[in-house]
Specification:
Elements (H helix, E strand, L loop, with lengths): L2 H9 L10 E6 L3 E6 L3 E7 L2 E4 L5 E4 L1 H4 L9 E4 L2 E2 L2 E2 L2 H16 L8 E6 L5 H13 L4 E6 H8 L10 E6 L4 E7 L2 E8 L3 H16 L1 E2 L2 H11 L9 E8 L4 E8 H24 L3 H10 L1 E4 L8 H9 L3 E3 L6 H11 L11
Parallel strand pairs: 1-9, 9-10, 11-17, 17-18
Antiparallel strand pairs: 1-2, 2-3, 4-5, 4-6, 7-8, 11-12, 12-13, 14-15, 15-16
The structure holds adenosine-5'-triphosphate and magnesium ion.
Amino acid sequence: MSFSGILSSIFARKPGTLLSNSMAIDLGTANTLIYLQGRGIVLEQPSVVSIDRETGEMVAVGNEAKVMLGRTGIALHALKPLKDGVITNATATMAMLREFFSMAKKRKISMRPRILVCVPSGITEVEISAVRTALERAGAREVLLVSEPLASAIGVGILVEGAAGNMIVDIGGGTTEVAVISLSAIVANNSIRIGGDEIDEAISAYLKKKYSLLIGERTAERVKIRMGTVLEDDDEEYEVSGLDFVNGIPETYLINSEDIRNALKEVIVTIVDAVRHGLEKTPPELASDIVERGIVLTGGGALLRGLDKLLMSETGLPIRVADNPLSCTVLGAGLILEDIYRYRNLLIQ
Ligand SMILES: Nc1ncnc2c1ncn2[C@@H]1O[C@H](COP(=O)(O)OP(=O)(O)OP(=O)(O)O)[C@@H](O)[C@H]1O
Ligand SMILES: [Mg+2]
């Protein structure tokens, strides 16, 4: 069905039954969230699957599969089917979505729901088509799309239809999206394929270089969440275990906040530059709004200690971390579903 056909079929329904059996999904590099129309957020799981190498069958998904990352041997393979915000393994994505839908189905949704999916603003046509195909094969009856920054903005309570400019910076697992929103549209944006995954990789690379210590991606993420900081006055210590690749034996090192600050320097500079470029692209008429209203930080990366203060000192603008940085995108998409007529102009055609 064409896009206009889908919309007219939606609007042909009686008010109150609009988009019934519909769901919104934030198919993220790190986490997938599902919002069920009329109910709210019903699923929050890591975007990870574990596959039997011999049969190709999926043996675990979400939280259960995430604990297997880096721990599987020759029989199983735990993997993330998305990278940098887009699908890199179509079969695994489809299997993961099918399982997530059936987890959500326990909450009595339609067999073939209509799905509103959030996509990065820098996504290509080919990548959009991959998302659409994965959702349809996983059971979607119809697929509608919205840009992540618009959904996030609604999720944090911004009135997107207003003429005033608002800036959202979403630091996810695989992407950092900077967007200025006014009159229901993204008027300036800068999207880079750098996010939490690259912060984890930077921590691994630093420990490998400084201590000859090899750690897995889950350990790197744990270190980041436990003591990730860009604050100069943070002074903490943390024991990290891994494999000493010189001696070939397991070792434990006491690392400190300075190690982390050094490890993160380069990635953080890239993220700050992305925000600066986003600001440079802002139409002058909206710049004064941004000066007044500042920037809202969303995505899990917004929780990195001191990032808000650093961005404040680098840009001179007020910075606010969203109350719900990990769930505001799907929440916003859910609110679009709940009031689809009001927000119809936000959908990607
Ligand atoms: N307290 C924390 N400090 C730093 N990073 C964190 C914290 N909590 C979560 N993260 C990171 O946030 C990222 C996940 O954020 P989020 O769920 O917003 O990403 P995503 O939506 O799946 O990715 P994307 O939008 O790029 O596709 C992960 O890299 C995770 O390690
Ligand atoms: Mg995201």
